[in-house]
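Supplementary Text 2. Reproducibility record for the structural model of the 228-residue chain.

All settings were left at their defaults, and a single model was retained for analysis rather than an ensemble. We include the record here because the model underlies the residue-level annotations in Supplementary Table 4.
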Amino acid sequence: MAESGANYGIVGASRSPEGIGGYFYNNTGGIGLYGGSSIASGVGVLAKGLDSGADLILGGNADSSTGDDGNLASDPDYASSDLVLKSNDTIRLELDNDGDGEDADFEIRDAADTLLFNVDESGAVTSGGAGIAAFPRPAYDSGLVSVTAGSTVDLLHNLGGNIDNYVVDLTCQHGTYGRHNWGLGGDSNSPETYGVYWLDLTTSEITVRRESQDGECPQVRVRIWMYP
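Retained model, structure tokens:
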């Protein structure tokens, strides 16, 4: 209990490769091991491995058919407690670290367990929700849609949120010219009208109009990005 110098409250050691230096547990729903500090600059628990070895392993029910191993949570006694990661350099997540080919994903979910954002071990973004949709993947992509000259087409996106936070992209597809943006916004050489444009954007729908004499945009593609 010395108030200065290096001292240890408890020392536990094991020399066996399968041994455990210290073992604490609680089998009635309490806490197996508690580490705390009485000052802000102190450290509650210090886990220190060797070089590239693991500093901390979170173990759970790995041999069970349900649940996940390793669960890190904020303080359960305080509803507004945050979980903060601090680093003097890089924070790195390694998916499928053992290389066994198992489907490995980095996920963000809400309180209802709805998937908002997902990246797999190949780097592919497979899901994006409002406010967290990844760029360049849009929150909505109509694909190529045919539009008859002199008509409109209504596209349902159902993104919700605030249309002031939408970024809309409209491109054209032509059999000879390929992808292009000629005539976007429409053009008029009275009495003839050309081009294509979008209008009537809502939180669920967008309309695309192709003018009567347009010959360049038989197909269109609408993509919408969202930001918080």
